[in-house]
Structure formats: C-alpha cells, structure tokens
Amino acid sequence: MLKAMMQADVGDDVFGEDPSINRLESMLADWFGMEAGMFCPSGTMTNQIALKMHTRPLDEVVCDVNSHIYQYEVGGYAFHSGIGIQLLEGQNGKITAEQIEAAIRPDQTWLPKTRLVVLENTCNRGGGSIYRAEEVQPIRLLTAQRGLALHLDGARLFNALVETGESPSLWGSLFDSISICLSKGLGAPVGSVLLGNAAFIHEARRVRKAMGGGMRQAGYLAAAGIYALEHHIDRLAEDHEHARMLGDALRQVPWVKHIRPVRSNILLFDVADHLQASQVLQALNKEGIHASGFGPRTIRFVTHLDISREMIQQAIKAILQADIP
Fold first, then answer.
1. Is the pLDDT reported for residue 154 higher than 90?
2. Domain spans, the chain
C-alpha cells in the first residue's frame, strides 16, 4: 500500500485534476451503481456533508440511539446543519420501518420537519451488527412514499457485504447517499467517499470546501484507498472469524457476564457486576491486549488486518489465564 501511495499519479483535486482521486471516486460509484463520488478525509465529514445536503435548518433526522452521527460526531448535525435528531431504540443499533413510520412528525408549525433517515452498517455500538438488504427494503419503500431521504453510514459496509454475500449495486439502489470508509477494516490510513447522484455530489463539493475538505494532491491518500479496495475486501472474513474465536474464549471466563452476538469484526461484552470495565482493561493491557471501554461495564474488541491468527491465539491464551477476580 505504501508503495502504491508513493507511486500515485496526482494533480489538484480542488480543480478535479487528480487522476487517483478521480479513479477512486469512479470505482466506488460504479460498484454501487451510483452516479458520482467525493473523497473526504473522514467518515465524519462525509456523514456531516450528507446531513447538510439532505436537510434545512429546523428539519429533523431519524436514527438509532447508537448511531455514529449521534454518538461520535460532536453534535455536528446541530452545529453544521441546524437540525434536530429523533432517536429510536433499535435492536443492536438496527431500526425498522415500523419504528421510523411512528417517528415521522405531523406537519405542524411547532414541530421540526422529518426530512432524513440514517442507518449504519455495520453498527459500531451494536457490536458490529449487520443489516441485510431485505431489512432495508421496507425502509426504502417507506422513505420514498413519505418523501424522506435515506442515507447510509457505511463505515464498515464491506464487512457486512463479505458476511452476507450481497452486492454493492444492490445496496446502492436502496439509498440516496452512502458514506464508505476506507480506514476501518479495509486498512487505508485516511479517507472516506460519499456517493450519490451527480447533482448531489456537485453541490456536496461546495459544502466540503466550506468544511475545509478541499485538498490538493490528495491522490497519495486515494491510492491507499484503491489498493485497499483491490486487495483487502475478501480478507475481511478473517477478521470476522477472529472475532468469533475471541467470543468463544470470553464465554469461558467468569469475569464476563454477557456477550453481544458476534456478527462481524466487532465484539462487545459486559463484565461481571462486581467489576468495572477499567479494571478489566487494565488487566488485559498487562497481557498485551488493547481494547476500548464502551461504558462502565462494557468493553469493545475489534479485529483487523494487523491482527494475525497467531496473535489471536496468544490473546485467547491470555484471556483464559488472566488474573481477574
């Protein structure tokens, strides 16, 4: 990947003249059957641009309470777009058409106007939970009937597609816009791409510029993304297998109370009632296992391309032998 970056053919992307950027955007747009794409430094930026493009101030976006746009984007929906947010309690981060329909506001002047629905696949705080296309199709039908836009935070979408075998083009047909992150399981150092129709992306470039996202010879970064797409998709299945192996080990130790279903490369578990996540994290860190706290008693493991099978086996041994009361 580094070699591909150093050999990248670059130009000025603000003028649309970076061939590597153009290739990356066209590649993903073609795969998903959408008209155009736009490269950004981060998934937060692509999501925030999508929110801005689909709404006006005083509008409202509907999403699950665990959504990245609510939990981890610094309230950007209010800061950038002047919109509200209605949170739904889904199952492991996944919401249904029935829930969304019940959340659509009546057209009253004292209420925000429901304008946009956002889904996340896979859902980080849902433990890497996966939407299948058959679950999204009723939501797409509802949003089309009610005149709402539908955006996908596809931060780990390729993890979902590898697991389900569904095609990018099928997913492209279900959404008005999609954010694809290249720096998660795909392993690129930087970057996300926002997909949509040509008019949407043309105006989105104006918003990107206002947010400071107009870059010059960014093709060096795009080359990493291209390499990731060409070499790192199928191997995502290894990460999923590794996460399941860790889950099997955690089920054997008394200091774990509950494990969320392991669907992809994210594993969430709750520690026993007499423990705090910080205590367990400290003990695991001494064993060379680095993880994240996801609450007072919840811990997140994430597997990725830098984690080998040998390392997983070492981690399993450490989990089973860890000195945690």
1. yes
2. 2-231, 236-321
Specify whether domain 2-231 bears CATH 3.30.420.40.
no
Are 192 and 181 spatial neighbours (Cβ–Cβ below 8 Å)?
yes
CA distances from 106 to 83, 109, 115 (A): 16, 9, 12
Amino acid found at 68? H
Structure-block tokens of residue 308: 């080998």
Q: Contact, 160 vs 124, CB < 8 A?
A: no
User: pLDDT per residue over 103-135, tens digit each?
Assistant: 999 999 999 999 999 999 999 999 999 999 999
Structure tokens at 106: 């009546």
Residue with tokens 């590597």: 20
Q: What is the pLDDT of residues 190-216, one digit of tens each?
A: 999 999 999 999 999 999 999 999 999
Mean pLDDT of 13-17: 96
CB 118 within 8 A of CB 151: yes
At a CB cut-off of 8 Å and minimum separation 6, what does 32 contact?
168, 169, 171, 172, 178, 195
CA angle 22–20–17, rounded 5-degree value: 60
Q: What is the pLDDT of residue 323?
A: 87
Phi–psi pair at 317, nearest 5 degrees: -60, -40
pLDDT-derived band at 325, boundaries 50, 70, 90: confident
- Residue 20 is encoded by which pair of tokens? 């590597």
**What pLDDT sits at residue 265?**
98
Domain 236-321 carries which CATH code? 3.90.1150.10
Sequence-distant (6+) residues with CB within 8 A of 256 are 250, 269, 270, 271, 272
Rounded mean pLDDT of 297-302?
Answer: 98
Question: How far apart (Å, rounded) are the C-alpha atoms in residues 129 and 120?
Answer: 9
Angle between helices 19-31 and 219-231 (to 10 degrees): 40
Q: Note whether 160 and 186 are within 8 A (CB).
A: no
Per-residue confidence (pLDDT) for residue 133, from 0 to 100: 98
Residue 276 identity (one-letter amino acid)? Q
Mean pLDDT of the chain: 97
